[in-house]
Structure formats: structure tokens, C-alpha cells
């Protein structure tokens, strides 16, 4: 069995579904079910005995100790995190608690559990920490992409909290010998992504005929990674990664946000035409967010060289799959767009 934290969120749920499609090893799924954690993401596993779900907080050391002792997982794959930059600007305390204190709690629980193991069980145990390229800061247009050796320069409360968690994971390896692995990924997109993030927000608003808010001049550049490719990369790192190492996971798809929005609009024009006209008519420029990094780009050559992983999806194939999924799953979108979600949209975009 493996323990997955945050396995009802966007990337975590995709990983759990992908893991159980690929094999029969059970998953113990620990998720606090905050606003972005959604058991509907895991509806396909409702009657699957290989999936054991526990609602709980990664800051709850007693709970984690009990789960480790009872289930004896061979690995922990740590997704659980507050992950939205805009939310971190409005409320950084939750990010420090979950991303820093929560990771610390997990590391200490894992260290105690691992230290008590013997023989092959101890040698085979892994703690895989899933992080972000945002810890590296911002790139100028001509700068080389982020390599694993790039100095950390976080610019938002979110990225600072993730950088802190990365440093803790590294320290627990070098100080205590805990067998850790870290992945730093670029912007994920795909099924089950909460519609506060760029791509699902654009899809949902376009279908509703609402403005498509684009920060600043829309020229902020990101590398885009289809979530299924990310899941495959994590499996490779968990199985074959070198202990204590960091692996950058990217999609080799650098694109400005405005181009992403136009691509989504063009696909919706094709797949769900609006009688009122092209969806791009809804694009609305809004005031930029504070500390908005200009460019991210991932150098993913290390994971390809050492583990043979490359993304299977191009942006063109991945974004088409993503738009088609949201069109086919409008009930899911409607359910997650609760009153709390609508209040958040008003708070974040209403005064821009």
C-alpha cells in the first residue's frame, strides 16, 4: 500500500485514479476535503476496495501515526497543499499552516515510522514530495529554463511556503537519512481542476457568457503540463528516482496566458459554438495581481536522462482532451461552483 496525501484534489485525484488503473496496489488516501478537495473526483472508486479514504488533516500527528501503524504503507506521496497564488495573497496563514507545518508533521511522522522498520521494508520506503516550479522565482524572456540547481527565489506567499517545505524535505534527508524524493512541476491542467485556475475558469466563464479575466497584458509565460503526464512522471520518480534528488517535471510547452485563453476560446467555438459570437469577445483585461512572476520555464532533461520520462501529450492534444472533459462533465463543474466559490470569484476579480 502507498499513502497519498491530498488525493481528493486535482493532481492527487488524477494520480490515485491513474495508479489504480495501472496496477492493484492499494492506496490509503488522506485528504482534509477543503474547498478544492472533492470526493466526486473519486466517484469511480466508490466501490473499489483498493481505495481507502480517510478525511483528515496532515497537521494531525496523532492521526498520521495511527494510519502509518495500522496500514504500514511502503511509501508516502505528498500532494496535500494550498496551491493558489491569489488565495495566498488574500490569506497567507493557511498556506504556512498546510504547506510548512503540515509537511513538517508528515516528515516527523514518516521519520518515526521509517526508523522502526527493519530490513527490506526500511530500505524500500520512500517519501515523495510534490512541489512546484514557482519556488524558483521569475525568469526574464531570454533566461534559460529552471534546472534543478537553480537558486530558490519565491515571490508569493504560496511559492514561499512551498519553498520552505522543499527545504524541510531536503534537511530531513541530509540530517536524518529519511529516503526522500522531490518533484518540482510546471503548471498542470486537465480533468478535475478546480475552476479558480486559469484554464477551467476560462472554460466555465466562456460557457456562461461571462467575462474572461486576463491579468495585466496577458503576456505572463508558463510551461504547461498535462496532469496525466505528471502522474506518469511521479510513478517513475517513486520507482526509480535517486534518493535525496530533485526532478523537474515540465511539459515543454511555454506559452503566454493570453495565447492559452485564445486557444480555449477557439476550441469552444469549434466544440460548443455560442450563437452570440466567438468566445474571444469575452476576454477582459484586469489589473495584475501583486508579485505576478513574468515567466516560468522548466528544464526537464534530468528526468528524461535518468528515468526516461517525457510527456506523452503535446499542448494541442492535452488542451483538446481537457476542454472536451469539461464539456462532458458540466454537472461536476456546477457542483464545485458553490456559494463559497462564487464569493471567492467576486472577492478576487470584482475590484480589478
Describe the protein's topology:
Elements: E1 2-5, H1 10-22, E2 27-31, E3 51-55, H2 61-71, E4 75-78, H3 85-90, H4 92-115, H5 119-124, E5 126-132, H6 157-176, E6 180-185, E7 187-189, H7 198-207, E8 212-215, E9 221-226, H8 227-240, E10 246-249, E11 254-256, H9 257-271, E12 283-286, H10 301-307, H11 315-328, H12 330-336, H13 339-349
Parallel strand pairs: 1-2, 1-4, 2-3, 4-5, 5-6, 6-10, 7-9, 8-12
Antiparallel strand pairs: 9-11
Helix pairs in contact: 1-8, 2-4, 4-6, 7-9, 9-11
Summarize the structure.
By secondary structure, the chain is an alpha/beta fold.
Describe the structure.
The chain has 352 residues and is α/β, with parallel strands linked by helices. It has helices at 10-22, 61-71, 85-90, 92-115, 119-124, 157-176, 198-207, 227-240, 257-271, 301-307, 315-328, 330-336, 339-349; strands at 2-5, 27-31, 51-55, 75-78, 126-132, 180-185, 187-189, 212-215, 221-226, 246-249, 254-256, 283-286. The strands form 3 sheets. The protein has a 7-stranded parallel sheet with strand order 3-2-1-4-5-6-10, sandwiched between helices. α1 (10-22) links the parallel β1 (2-5) and β2. The longest helix has 24 residues, at 92-115. The radius of gyration is 20 Å and the shape is globular. The model has no long low-confidence stretch (mean pLDDT 94).
Amino acid at each position: 500500500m502507498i499513502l497519498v496525501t491530498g488525493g481528493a484534489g486535482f493532481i492527487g485525484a488524477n494520480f490515485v485514479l491513474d495508479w489504480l488503473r495501472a496496477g492493484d496496489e492499494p492506496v490509503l488516501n488522506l485528504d482534509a476535503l477543503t474547498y478544492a478537495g472533492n470526493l466526486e473526483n473519486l466517484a469511480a472508486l466508490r466501490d473499489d476496495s483498493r481505495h481507502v479514504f480517510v478525511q483528515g488533516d496532515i497537521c494531525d500527528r496523532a492521526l498520521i501515526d495511527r494510519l502509518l501503524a495500522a496500514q504500514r504503507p511502503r511509501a508516502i506521496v505528498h500532494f496535500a497543499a494550498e496551491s493558489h497564488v491569489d488565495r495566498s495573497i488574500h490569506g497567507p496563514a493557511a498556506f504556512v499552516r498546510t504547506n510548512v507545518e503540515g509537511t513538517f508533521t508528515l516528515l516527523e511522522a514518516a521519520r518515526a515510522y521509517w526508523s522502526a522498520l527493519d530490513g527490506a521494508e526500511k530500505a524500500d520506503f520512500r517519501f515523495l514530495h510534490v512541489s512546484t516550479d514557482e519556488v524558483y522565482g521569475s525568469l526574464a524572456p531570454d533566461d534559460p529554463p529552471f534546472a534543478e540547481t537553480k537558486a530558490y527565489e519565491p515571490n508569493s506567499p504560496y511559492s514561499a511556503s512551498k519553498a520552505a517545505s522543499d527545504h524541510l524535505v531536503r534537511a530531513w534527508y541530509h540530517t536524518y537519512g529519511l529516503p526522500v524524493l522531490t518533484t518540482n512541476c510546471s503548471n498542470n491542467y486537465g480533468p478535475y481542476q478546480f475552476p479558480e485556475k486559469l484554464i477551467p475558469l476560462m472554460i466555465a466563464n466562456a460557457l456562461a457568457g461571462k467575462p474572461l479575466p486576463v491579468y495585466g497584458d496577458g503576456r505572463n509565460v508558463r510551461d504547461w503540463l498535462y496532469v496525466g503526464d505528471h502522474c506518469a512522471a511521479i510513478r517513475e520518480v517513486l520507482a526509480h528516482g535517486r534518493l535525496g534528488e530533485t526532478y523537474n517535471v515540465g511539459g515543454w510547452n511555454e506559452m503566454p496566458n493570453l495565447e492559452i485563453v485564445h486557444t480555449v476560446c477557439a476550441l469552444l467555438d469549434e466544440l460548443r459554438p455560442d450563437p452570440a459570437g466567438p468566445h474571444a469577445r469575452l476576454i477582459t483585461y484586469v489589473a495584475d495581481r501583486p508579485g505576478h512572476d513574468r515567466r516560468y520555464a522548466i528544464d526537464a532533461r534530468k528526468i528524461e536522462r535518468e528515468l526516461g520520462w517525457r510527456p506523452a501529450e503535446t499542448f494541442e492534444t492535452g488542451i483538446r482532451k481537457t476542454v472536451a472533459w469539461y464539456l462532458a462533465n458540466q454537472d461536476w463543474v456546477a457542483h464545485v461552483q458553490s456559494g463559497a466559490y462564487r464569493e471567492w470569484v467576486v472577492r478576487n476579480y470584482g475590484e480589478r
